[in-house]
Amino acid sequence: MSGILDRLPKVGERRLAVRVTADALRQLRGGSPWLYDGSITSVSHDGAPGDLAVVFDDRRKFAAIGLWDPTSPIRVKVLHVGAPATIDGRWFRERLSTSLDRRRALTDDPDTTGYRCVHGENDGLPGLVVDRYGSTLVVKLYTPAWFPHLRVVTEALVELLVPERVVLRFGRSVEVGDTFGLADGDTIVGPAPNQPVFFRERGLTLEADVVHGQKTGHFLDQRDNRALVRGMAAGADVLDVFASTGGFSVSAAAGGASSVHLIDQSEQALATAKRNLEHNHRIAEVRRCAVHTTTGDAFHVLADLARRGEQFDIVIVDPPSFASNQAAVPRALAAYARLTRLALALVRRGGTLVSASCSSRVTADEFVESVLGAAASAGVEVVETRRTGHAVDHPIGFEFGGYLKAVFLTVRSTPDRS
Predict the structure, then answer these.
(1) Is the pTM for the entire model greater than 0.70?
(2) ∠ CA 340-252-236 to the nearest 5 degrees?
């Protein structure tokens, strides 16, 4: 274990005693992993991030325990509800082991070595994400409350998964605070990577920049949807909007697509996407696939392609989250509708639009309704053929734990091409 972790703070010896409103207590017992500051009626003393906070009911009996976070409106990240529990190295190891057991179908598959091992609140570890890329683990902290527990969590991960290295990443709110001499992208176990790390997704070889890349280096959550696109791509011209590092395009090419056209505003992401296609040139279908890229704003590029009369058999629209808070939901739904109209103008009759949303505050029904409504307003007749949600390594563990949704639409007719 790297000596770099010796800088980390210790957990406070005194547990905080926390009293909450009756409504907050009901929510905790109903599975909520979050206790907000406005629901706290009293606390025994000041605590530091990561101190253990015990929530008591109105009869002064143990109700829950979690990590104290005075830097966030979510004041307690709840780890356990019910009977009293001791939160120590053994407890963390058991919780991590349970998370891995949920993913046994992936951990036992040699053709897939990139997947999420811990999905934060949904695996009972709020604010902690662990992704695997081959022999590399990436631990991402979304709250400073994990700093005092990072050593024991890392030790348990090394014992359970035996990685070559562990890389540490920070969410924005963590990076702006005290990180105890640690930096985003530090390697805390094993040798630091001197190049992107490689992993496999259903037999395809991909790279991930685990030090500087978005999230932890790759968007692992769309694996199942990429496989669906691969199964329908034979002979197709495919447009991949918000392509990022090319996961959908690589899958489409491997499925026999005639061409893939990738759109993203990041030249660096598109360069990675091209390399990911090259990593799979051992596959004849990938070698034969024509590759085109366009760097630019997706809305503008889609409109330009339509003006040029471009047409595709499959159009994939997988944008970033448009709703950072509840107030942004109407604006997000309007953006999804606009994207849908732009994308449908490029889909050949009989072709498919794959539209996805990762906005947690937008429900699946709201999202699909906006997409279908946009199609109707554009005079395009579509048939919904499939809806998808979360993959097995991104489980939904509580009421608001879902965020990913996608809809597959077949275009039956258009006003201009009927």
Answers:
(1) yes
(2) 75
